[in-house]
Amino acid sequence: MANTYCTATNFGKGFFTHEDRNDFYLSGHAGDVWVVGNNAAGVSWINRVTGTGKTAAEAQAIVDGKIEESQAAWDALPEAEKAPTAGFETQTRPVKYTLP
Amino acid sequence: MADYKGIKGFKVQSLASDPTLVEGQVWYNTTGNALKYLELTAGTWASGGALNAAKQKLGGAGSQTSALCMAGYDGPPSAPLYVTANVETYNGSAWTEGANLLQYRQAASGAGIVSTAALCFGGDTYPQAGLTNSESYNGTSWTEGNNLIKARWSMAGMGTQTAAISVGGQSFPPETTEKLTETWDGTSWTETNDLNTARYYPGGSGTSVDAVVMGGVNPTPAATDATETWNGTSWTETNNLNTARYGGGSSWMGTSTAALYWGGLTPSRTANTEHWNGTSWTEVNNLAAASNYMGGAGTATEALSFGGQGPPGPAMVTTTEEWTQALTVKTVTVS
Fold first, then answer.
1. Which residues in chain B touch residue A98, judged by CB atoms under 8 angstroms apart?
2. What chain A residue is nearest to B130 in terms of C-alpha separation?
3. B147 touches chain A (CB under 8 A)
4. If you write DSSP's letter for every residue of A46-83 in order, what string do you get?
5. Is residue A92 part of a domain?
6. What are the boundaries of each domain within chain B?
7. B65 at the A interface (CB within 8 A)?
């Protein structure tokens, strides 16, 4: 398996370093979900940031849940705010995607 | 057989210790008896200190270790009261509240190479009211200066507090995507030659006399990949971005031959980062988290990305990422 998954709160400086980025794949997603390269450095990073390990399905469910919340918020917007407006560009409706 | 001096007219330097010079520098280390050179490593993004408040459509200025986050928007969609005059300063580790701008605004532009000498200009307030306001910061307070000639927002802004350039943007009414270029001499703005491609929310890098702009929106709501360079007099079209987008961050303090453009909307939110070498764009390592409408600062080798919108929807974030591409000493080997 190329990647592993966790939830962790980005605490700012030092949360992930340049060395980390060279040592393993890392990408952040909604719900504080992180997709982490499944190697020794990646696993060590999860421990360092006190991450909570998740299965791929669990991580995907967290992200999907956050996207569904955003979709509901978007659906509740007045129609005028869904149409393009100069200066205050509207958001496109969030779309679900599959974690890497 | 001809030697290097015979071909090039000068010798490779012989030095007892490794110098700290520029990319491509070659020398012979007499202590280690080795031919060496300096090479830029592949850059990466690392996490930085978080902003004190989540916000988007930010003005940015300064370097990776002395940056300003200016104005923006910190509320729910289309809520006018949340356009802010707030300012934060970054010291390489943490963001600290600075003095507020005199005029609240979003999508303003900035110039300046340190957080204690910067310029903030243009922007808009809700609904669709473009601003001409131009303010100077001395590290303690803002002073109103002479206004931009045309009210607009979401321009590219580059240069210093006393020599800046404002490029493109959007104005209303009527809703117009601008080609306009104005330069600032420390006292007043002067209109000069237009961009070839009108755009708003582009990226940029350089100074008032030597710059590059990339991406942006044109035509609404499509992203453009167009890149243009500025020689102090006119804009020239050059090679395009690999990924068309707008609302990304850029190394405003870079040069026309070394720039970084990251994140943005394609219109999907992206973490994509590209490096410009004066001729072409190359895909490099991505942001850790995709974002858009963030603030940007720094150079192509030491850049800063802060705030903006992150996944999943229009949520604003406080996160900061620091791009570093270091020079490292390499030894020439024979195999």
1. none
2. A87
3. no
4. HHHTT-EEE-HHHHHHHHHHHHHHHHHHHHTS-HHHHS
5. no
6. 4-40, 44-324
7. no
The model's pLDDT over B69-116, given as tens digits with 9 standing for 90+, comes to 999 998 765 555 689 999 999 999 999 999 999 999 999 999 999 999
Given the structure tokens 């980390």, which residue do they identify?
A20
Work out the minimum CA distance from A82 to partner chain B, whole angstroms: 10
Instruction: Report the distance separating Cα B120 and Cα B110, nearest Å.
Output: 4
In this prediction the pTM is: 0.91
ipTM of predicted complex: 0.90
In tens, the pLDDT along B243-281 reads 999 999 999 999 999 999 999 999 889 999 999 999 999
- Strands A52-54 and B295-298 come out as unpaired
Report yes or no on A100 lying in a domain.
no
Reference A22, options B123, B86, B139, B41; nearest CA is: B41
Q: What's the CA gap between B194 and B131, in Å, rounded?
A: 20
The answer to whether B324 contacts chain A (CB < 8 Å) is yes
Interface check for A87 against chain B (CB to CB < 8 A): the answer is yes
A93 and A74 Cβ atoms separated by less than 8 Å: yes
Distance between CA B117 and CA B138 in Å, rounded? 5
CA distance B122 to B109: 6
Task: Work out whether strand B124-125 and strand B142-144 pair parallel, antiparallel, or are unpaired.
Answer: unpaired
Q: Has residue A24 been placed in a domain?
A: yes
B54 close to B316: Cβ distance less than 8 angstroms: yes
Give per-residue burial for A17-44: e unless 16+ CB within 10 Å, then b: bbebbebbbbbbbbbebbbbbeeeebbe
- CATH class of the structural domain B44-324: mainly beta
B319 to chain A, minimum CA–CA distance in Å? Answer: 7
- Cβ distance B47 to A15 less than 8 Å, yes or no, reads yes
Domain that holds residue A14: 3-82
DSSP readout, B27-45? EEETTTTEEEEEEEPPPEE
Are A81 and B78 in contact (CB < 8 Å)? yes
Is A97 a member of any domain? no
Total domains in chain A come to 1
User: Can you tell me the distance from the alpha carbon of B296 to that of A1, in angstroms, rounded to the nearest whole number?
Assistant: 35
Counting one residue from chain A and one from chain B, the pairs whose CB atoms sit within 8 A come to: 108
| Joined tokens for residue B193 | 């030659």
Of A27, A86, A95, the CB nearest to B288: A27
